[in-house]
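Duplicate of #3305? Posting structure anyway:
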C-alpha cells in the first residue's frame, strides 16, 4: 500500500518493510560486535518499540535478556512535553549492561529521563538503541549509539508506531501527508 488513511489523516510509505529489516539486522550486528562477552538486558519501551524489539532480538546472536517499560509522552500527533511512567522495571540492574530499545527519539526527553532513572540503580553501563531519530528535533544532550534511521521532523506511524493507537500493525513506516 502506497497510502493509507488512519482515522482523519492520510499517510504515505516512507520506509518500506524490506529496508526496515535490513537496518534492524545491521543494528543487531553492531550490538553483537559491541556487546560480545556480555549479557545485556534490553529494556524495550512500550508500546511503540515492541515490533522493533522483537525483530532486533531475533537478530541478536549473543546471550541477552529483555524486559519492558511503559512510558507515555504523546497525545494524538504531538508530544506533551512530559513523560509519564505507566509501569516500570522489576529486574535488579546493579552491574548490568543495559540497552534501552526505543521506537523513536524525538526531543530526547524520554531517553534522558530513562537514562537518569536507570542510572540510580547502579548498572555497569547504559546504551541507547532506537529505530528512528529526528536529529533536527532533539533538544536534550543524549548519546544514541545505535540508530536504524534518521528521519525529518514529520509525524510517522507503522511498524509499532501509532496515531491514536491505530496503525501499529503496518509493516512499513508511513509519513503523514500534509493537508
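Output from current build:
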Amino acid at each position: 500500500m502506497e497510502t493509507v488513511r488512519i482515522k482523519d489523516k492520510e499517510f504515505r510509505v516512507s520506509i518500506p518493510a524490506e529496508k526496515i529489516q535490513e537496518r534492524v539486522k545491521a543494528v543487531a550486528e553492531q550490538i553483537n560486535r559491541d556487546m560480545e562477552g556480555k549479557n545485556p538486558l534490553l529494556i524495550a519501551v512500550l508500546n511503540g518499540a515492541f515490533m522493533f524489539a522483537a525483530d532486533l532480538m531475533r537478530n541478536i546472536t549473543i546471550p541477552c535478556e529483555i524486559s519492558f517499560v511503559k512510558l507515555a509522552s504523546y497525545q494524538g500527533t504531538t508530544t506533551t512535553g512530559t513523560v509519564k511512567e505507566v509501569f516500570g522495571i522489576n529486574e535488579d540492574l546493579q552491574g548490568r549492561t543495559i540497552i534501552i530499545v526505543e521506537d523513536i527519539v524525538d526531543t530526547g526527553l524520554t531517553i534522558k529521563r530513562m537514562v537518569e532513572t536507570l542510572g540510580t540503580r547502579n548498572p555497569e553501563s547504559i546504551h541507547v538503541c532506537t529505530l528512528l531519530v529526528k536529529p533536527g528535533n532533539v533538544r536534550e544532550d543524549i548519546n544514541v549509539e545505535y540508530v536504524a534511521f534518521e528521519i525529518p521532523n514529520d509525524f510517522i506511524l507503522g511498524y509499532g508506531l501509532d496515531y491514536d493507537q491505530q496503525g501499529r500493525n503496518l509493516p512499513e513506516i508511513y509519513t503523514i501527508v500534509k493537508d
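Confirmed duplicate; merging threads. The two ends are 20 Å apart (CA to CA). Strands lie at 3-6, 9-15, 41-46, 65-75, 78-87, 97-105, 125-133, 146-150, 156-157, 173-176.
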